[in-house]
Amino acid sequence: MRLVVISMTIATVVSLIGTPLLIRILAKHGYAQAIRVSSEGELYPDHESKRGTPSMGGAAIIVAVIVGYFLTHLLTWRPITPSAMLVMYLMVGLGLVGVADDYLKIFKQRSTGLRARTKLIGQAVVAVSFAWLSLQFTEDGGAPASMAISFVRDTAIVLPIGLFLLWVWFLVTATTNGVNLTDGLDGLAIGASIMTFIAYVIITVWQYGQNCAFVDSVAATCYSTVSPLDLAVMAAALAGASFGFLWWNTSPARIFMGDTGSLALGGGIAALAILSRTELLLPLLAGLFLITTLSVIAQVGSFKLTGRRVLRMAPLHHHFEMLGWPEIQIVVRFWVIHGLCIGAGITLFYAEWVRS
């Protein structure tokens, strides 16, 4: 636990101090994201007050995670592990895809950023390379990832390499886009991400204490997760960096994290799910992101099939904005919903161990 506390503390401090420095730099050069405005036949919530707010704040989160993780290992003189490096690789790789998207939004003033196809290709390249690399290293007698589909631990369903790459691509793309879609109100996505990362700290610390590598226990009760303690250190760095950023991103936001942050955080969540062998638990641990994604799918599907919209505007949080709900009220209530989903996920995780 000492490593986890150190990592979270360092990342929080770096993010708290680094984010306002980034705000000054971006504001000085006028690097602000374009704001969508209502037009004839296409209404948007009134976000005129957000005009001029700097974006690309996800860069501060990424730097804080990197500093928090590596400085923790330097201070405690512990070796880094391939598992944690894979989480960092997916986070930074997707963050760079987000940088390209934010560049177009900020410098070209194109509010939609990268074309959807271009963004998906970038995400696919990073996700598939992450999947392949996760099978190439050996730690504690095994690879960081498993080709078996996992719930709380690996199931009996083992995928061939081709399907495994597609499975990881799906998980990564779904999670990153879920976080990206949720990032529409001040503090909403980053607050939900903090809860998810803390959940993974709890899960990986528990897996470390009950790990098959050094616990004399039957296979049904121990966990085969590779380097769970270092995954906990990485999850703690992600939680701390996000917590520090929330101080500046809460309403009224001084800075937006942009796609640089949302894609990086989504990558971190997906990587932790895959490497901690809790893939099918992800819909609960990332509950709000799933609900938001489903609201967009329902809106688009309904309009294409029937010509009618089920919501006043998608994603779901904008629907409630259009109904007149205050932004703060939407954010807090959605956090409550996300917390309930995570509570259910942690309960299932623990209940499986008790039953075993």
A few lines on this structure:
A hairpin with a 3-residue loop joins strand 1 and strand 2 (154-158). This protein has 356 residues and is mainly alpha-helical.
Question: Any overview of this molecule?
Answer:
The longest helix is centred in the last third of the chain and has 29 residues, at 327-355. This protein has helices at residues 2-28, 58-76, 82-107, 116-133, 161-182, 188-209, 228-249, 258-275, 282-285, 287-306, 316-322, 327-355; strands spanning 148-150, 154-158. 51% of the residues are buried. The mean pLDDT is 89. A two-stranded antiparallel sheet has the order 1-2. With 356 residues, it is an all-alpha fold. The protein is 66% helix and 2% strand. A hairpin with a 3-residue loop joins strand 1 (148-150) and strand 2 (154-158). It has one domain. The two termini are 25 Å apart.
The largest sheet, given as strand count, sense and whether it forms a barrel, is:
2 strands, antiparallel
Quickly give the structural class: mainly alpha
Strand content: under 5%
Q: Helical proportion?
A: 55-70%
What distinguishing features does this structure have?
two-stranded antiparallel ribbon; 356 residues; globular; mainly alpha
Give the topology.
Layout: H1 2-28, H2 58-76, H3 82-107, H4 116-133, E1 148-150, E2 154-158, H5 161-182, H6 188-209, H7 228-249, H8 258-275, H9 282-285, H10 287-306, H11 316-322, H12 327-355
Antiparallel strand pairs: 1-2
Helix pairs in contact: 1-2, 1-7, 2-3, 2-7, 2-8, 3-4, 3-7, 3-8, 4-5, 5-8, 5-10, 6-7, 6-8, 6-12
